[in-house]
Design goal:
The chain is mainly alpha-helical. It has three helices and no strands. Helix 1 (3-17) packs antiparallel against helix 2 (27-50).
Length: 91
């Protein structure tokens, strides 16, 4: 099931919930309804968590906070820090 289909199904279930008061649902119907909503929410959350993140790279315009003469390890840390910053900006 695609993410869009799950979102649509969840929206339909949540919208329909407002109309439940217009009839007398059985306890089984309410339980099944709640299970469907919970399952869709969990599936959506898992799918969003498992989605690959968009690649974040560095460009010539990105300033790396590193001075020549520092160790190569310091350069790697500076690059890592810049990539984390750019990734955080994306979310």
């Amino acid at each position: 099931m695609t993410k869009e289909v799950m979102k649509l199904a969840l929206e339909a279930l949540e919208t329909a919930w407002y109309h439940v008061g217009t009839f007398a649902p059985t306890d089984d119907a309410i339980e099944l309804y709640d299970q469907a909503r919970k399952s869709l929410r969990q599936a959506l959350a898992k799918q969003e968590q498992d989605e690959p993140k968009e690649w974040v790279g560095l460009s010539d315009e990105d300033d790396i906070d590193w001075e020549e003469g520092d160790s190569l390890r310091d350069l790697f840390k500076a690059i890592e820090s810049k990539l984390k910053e750019k990734t955080h900006e994306q979310t």
